[in-house]
Specification:
homodimer, 0% strand, Tetracycline Repressor, domain 2, Transcriptional regulator, TetR family (chains A, B), DNA-binding, Arc Repressor Mutant, subunit A, 10 helices
DNA sequence: GTCTATACCTCGATAGAC
DNA sequence: GTCTATCGAGGTATAGAC
């Protein structure tokens, strides 16, 4: 609401930043590049965002918000099986929905580091919450490793350039399948052999 | 051999660099920091390494060498099952052996980016080779996603600060277990329930 | 409220003295 | 083998034009 010209420049700036970040990495993208791409000066960029970290945070914000929601929704479930199922499906959906952003996150700690120092005390809380739900209360080392591999594997695969040519639907199906297998949840599709 | 004083300074420099990289990330570590930690000037550092990228490469070199050997050894096997088993076990071993380095790799594209531009044409070849062996010839999308999740999941979990307190032996066992389950290879230990 | 001009400091990197 | 001096670029910061 109140989408004035200020908001417009801000939005264009964020779109441009995401594109440049994807191409050159966060730390490989200078404020000068962003300014040039927008046709303004560095100081103009500095007017909208006080620091470069603020830009990276704003770029990541949609993904972070969805993740926040997901954790809250999952934690609200009563049965642990439901929590795990909801978290897995929600996480895969999120990874698909924000593929470009996830690719950045997975390959660029410039983003992560920038986020860590703001938000609700950083990104770490989310990871902790996700892992906590997936690995259950009082988890064994096996459960912790399992949850970790599941989450990081899904995120990395989702953001991987190697799999970029897979369509959203197909990638979503496969990631869900792998996740279910790792977490010991029943699958809903035919048991396609995975090592042909 | 010929461990002259030059080698000594070089070695100290690399140890210091790895420590600082781990603490502040590659791009978060300036040559000034390294020089200060060694008690010399920036230019002195430049005597031993022509660029900062050369330092990151030298820091990563032991891990890259092991990975190179592993790929060659796996590719030399005749039966595909043997290839997969050898690659999985070797990869887990490598991740354990170079935990600190893997943590850096997993969380810092500064390293990856630095390596990409040197070595035998970059890091990408390795990933491609690993994925190729794990996903088999003419792989389905399911097999590709599966291999991707396996490799990235193991690497990320191995380098994760969250699991840093797990001992090498235990982490090794669990990572192998997860990998075997994902790749459909027989396990050698009791089927501990993973979701307690 | 939005942007330009300009300056400051640190960084990676080079040249050359000792 | 190590140092001083210096450079261009990057992030940050302020003053002031419109």
């Amino acid at each position: 609401m109140t989408a004035g010209p200020a908001e417009d420049t801000r939005t264009r700036l964020l779109q441009t930043a995401l594109r440049l970040f994807t191409e050159h990495g966060v730390e490989g993208t200078s404020l000068q590049m962003i300014a040039d791409a927008l046709g303004v000066t560095k100081a103009a960029v500095y007017y909208h965002f006080k620091t470069k970290a603020e830009i990276t945070e704003a770029v990541a914000e949609p993904g972070v918000r969805d993740l926040d929601e997901l954790v809250l929704r999952a934690a609200a479930q009563k049965r642990r099986g439901t929590q795990v199922d909801l978290l897995l499906e929600g996480f895969v959906d999120l990874v698909i929905r924000h593929r470009a952003l996830v690719a950045l996150f997975s390959s660029d700690p410039g983003l992560v580091r920038a986020i860590e120092k703001s938000a609700h005390g950083g990104m770490e809380g989310f990871g902790q919450a996700l892992l906590g739900i997936l690995s259950g209360p009082d988890p064994t080392p096996a459960a912790r490793v399992n949850a970790m591999v599941t989450l990081t594997g899904i995120a990395m695969a989702g953001g991987s350039p190697d799999l970029a040519r897979l369509g959203d639907e197909e990638l979503r199906t496969e990631l869900l399948d792998v996740g279910r297998r790792l977490l010991g949840r029943p699958r809903r599709r035919g048991l396609a052999s995975v090592t042909p």
